[in-house]
Amino acid sequence: MSGEEVLKELIEEEIEAREIRRRMANWEFINRQPPRIREALVFYIEKGDIRLAARLAGLDLEDFRELLRKANIPVIV
Amino acid sequence: MSHRGYTIADTCFLIDWSKYRYRDILFKIFRTVFVPEEVLREIKSEDTITWISRELARDNLSLYTVSRFEIDEARRLIEISREKPHLPSIDLPEAICLVIGRTRGYVVLTENRGALYIPRSVDEYRDVVVWRSLELLVNAVLYSILKVDCGSPDTIFKEYMRDTLHLFPRKAHEEAVERVRRYCLERRF
Amino acid sequence: MPREYVVIEYIGSEEEAREIRRRMANWEFINKQPPRLREALIYYIEKGDLYVASRIAGLTIEEFNELRKKAGIPNVS
């Protein structure tokens, strides 16, 4: 697979994934969270980078993963 | 029939897979599932640590102590991946699994998108087999380890998605369902 | 010494060691521990592997060895 094809596939998947995360997220739950957590969740919805989002939230990976479930934000891989 | 080779699992894979109702099929597919110490360190929840520790005791899981060489190679892989701006980032635990996949021939289990694309983007890693839960489920069906309802081939994926709140990209999901459908047709003849 | 005789004795010792660890362990103490430490102690009882048990616990080998003693689990060799 050429670099261009990889890039095209990645971009398409990222756009699709972001749309799904935005649509499924429980925004009421997200907006009730303390600022740091809220911003980390919004970051994750937009970027899909779970490790970085967890660090932004000040949580370990597993705790952040549970938080995503509570916020109804899916991991899409 | 089963794969019965070795595999190395990263954190993102384990923390989702541990929530799946048929998580133990993992041990029917592979002879041993290795877990790097760096990954074990990241596991915090009671349920996951209990599962991992009991399976370590049963020898279904085995702890992998990473060598200095492997860590250095992992850091080198991270640097290489940063030179490809289109690739999602990979972190040390995933990079370690990829290095072990390359040096030991283990199947790499990960849910990191960057890691999935490494074989397609980095020449040195082109022969590394990387599976996410999607490929694992398909192979579990093909190895007759996971029973499929041929009238509803999507059910096995839906069950996983429901248990974990982990969805699959549409095209990949469709391809997987189609593969299972073909398996069902082949079995009929 | 014939090789077969040595192998049989080895298997017997593993089982015996596990039984001793199970029997002598202070289960009240073990069950009161936080999940990671509890599971690490249970793992140690089953396998007798101090190194892996310490990794599960997230402790150094020395720290885990102290915990093992507090839990009344003997090192059987």
Summarize the structure in short.
With 189 residues, chain B is of the alpha/beta class. Helices cover 56% and strands 11% of the residues of chain B.
Mean pLDDT score of chain A: 94
Shape of chain A: elongated
Helix amount of chain C: over 70%
- Biggest β-sheet of chain C, characterized? none
- Ranges of chain A with pLDDT <50 over ≥5 residues? none
H-E string of chain A = HHHHHE
Approximate helicity band of chain A: over 70%
Task: Give a verbal description of the structure.
The complex is a heterotrimer of chains A (77), B (189) and C (77). Helix content of chain A is 75%, strand content 3%. Chain A has helices at 3-24, 27-31, 35-47, 50-57, 61-70; one strand at 75-76. The mean pLDDT of chain A is 94. Chain B has two domains: 6-131, Rossmann fold, CATH 3.40.50; 134-188, no CATH class. Chain B has ten helices and six strands; from the N terminus they run βααβααβααβαβααβα. In chain C, helix 3 (35-47) packs antiparallel against helix 4 and helix 4 crosses helix 5. Chain C has five helices and no strands. The mean pLDDT of chain C is 88. Chains A and B meet through helix 1, helix 4, helix 5 and strand 1 of A and helix 1, helix 7 and strand 6 of B.
Summary keywords:
heterotrimer; A: 77 residues; mainly alpha; C: 77 residues; globular
Explain the layout of strands and helices:
The complex is a heterotrimer of chains A (77), B (189) and C (77).
Chain A: H1 3-24, H2 27-31, H3 35-47, H4 50-57, H5 61-70, E1 75-76
Helix pairs in contact in A: 3-4, 4-5
Chain B: E1 6-9, H1 11-17, H2 26-29, E2 32-36, H3 37-42, H4 46-57, E3 61-64, H5 68-82, H6 92-104, E4 107-109, H7 113-121, E5 130-131, H8 133-142, H9 155-164, E6 166-167, H10 170-188
Parallel strand pairs in B: 1-2, 1-4, 2-3, 4-5
Chain C: H1 3-24, H2 27-31, H3 35-47, H4 50-57, H5 61-70
Helix pairs in contact in C: 3-4, 4-5
